[in-house]
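Input for the complex:
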Amino acid sequence: MATVRKDAAAPAVQEAAVTGKGPAPSGKARSRTRRSTLPLTIGSGLLGLLLWVVLANIGIQGFPGPLEVAERAVTSIGDGTLLGDALASLRRVLTGFVLGVALAVPVGFLMGWYPVIRGLIEPWLQFFRMVPPLAIIPLAIVLMGIDETPKIFVIFLASFLSSVVSTFQGVVSVDSTLINAARVLGAKDRTVFTGVVVPASTPFILVGMRIGLGASWATVVAAELIAAQEGLGYRMQQSQLYYDLPTIFVQLIVIGLIGLIMDRALLLAERRLTNWQERR
Amino acid sequence: MSPVVSGAPKIEFRDVSHSFALGGGEFAALDRVSLDIADGEFVTVVGPSGCGKSTLMNVAAGLLEPDAGQVLVDGESVHGPSPQRGVIFQQYALFPWMSVRKNVEFGLKIAGVGAAERRRRAERFIDMVGLTDFADALPKTLSGGMKQRCAIARAYAVDPTILLMDEPFGALDALTRVQLQDRLLDTWSRERRTVLFITHDVDEAVYLANRVIVMAARPGRVHRVIDVDLPYPRTEEIRLSPEFAELRREVWHSVYHQPTPMERTSS
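Predicted:
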């Protein structure tokens, strides 16, 4: 049976070798497609802006136009509230995210390496994955008070849950031939782990981190809507009370932009760190 | 140069049996296989799919503990892998995040060889397989043949006394395969090791070996042993000689015209 499976894998290996040989043409093709989508991206942005102007002018009650929102953005930057709110939200996200990943990576590795640990932890993991982190907020506030702790805890939970699953997936999907290759070169368990399992699962971990960061960002804004004294979500909550739609728009745009920047940064890190991968 | 060195066998398979669970039943990959391989000998194993060739190699490598019987290397029972027995895998199994040089140095690093000595030894074997210009390249930039040459250098670097090769050239195109066969024989004649080479290619089996082991399937067992009395170095003339053709015919016949259990795979 082993032979049959290997024969089936052979064309795939060859194909990978062939595509690996020609990075220049594929790179050229990719930059060509990117060039052709750029006008579309700009056009799409302009169309959106136009639609916004139209919506604002046909007179939905209180709906602000782009100019009004831009003015509000300048004011909020000028008086420092926007920067303060963004920093407050970012601080929460990064604290919770770093703590979550720092715990998720070792736990994921242990689960992937020791079946007993996996068996003990996995049911709880699967259960809590089904509970939206925001649903924990009422409980967290009751147990931890209304300061920073419950918000950071919820973000920690969001990033931990998504990172731990992908780390664990990364460990169990390490190619067993690579592990065998290390063992026949004399590697003992420790070296197999640090020298093969850890680097081979890095791509999975980084993907998990990206998902985790997205989940954290979504969670922090929602958590601030519920209970906070500063932050982007808090500012929106306040603006809602005063029917201040321009400020809500500013916050929404900033939330989207910061999320986009963080995601691109992690994507870039991922590309750099896992540059050795054969991409198909 | 006499191909077979006299004395106690380097590798002994003694009544090795191993089964896999398969769809509720048992699949006898190896059934009481006994085989002696002399020190410095080049033995190839051919056989149809499911004859247990790869299982034989995994048992010898220590990656698989057989259900019954044992494998002795230098008279000592094999339990678990050892750098003394180098393995070359069909899928190359290079560490994709390491350069060619780092791959070749991997085993030396585990053995605790110092950085300078490690680099010197790695360079020697990278040179041996002709990859000097690619020492700092990542595996993804190499062709299949180059990857396998890197894997051979990596196996040689830890100075094994035995090389176990599991269809190493099976995924390569015909031309590259012939080139690598010549390279391998050239290396083997200069850096003599005991080689157990698994293949499904009859030409390859005859061209490389002192001795061809033909296996049969269901259950996996040794069907015939055919001595290859052709001189080394093997050349194109030998490959095209009538003696080669005769041996090839003989091996071909015993691989593809095996007793009854094989009838069903004749499609």
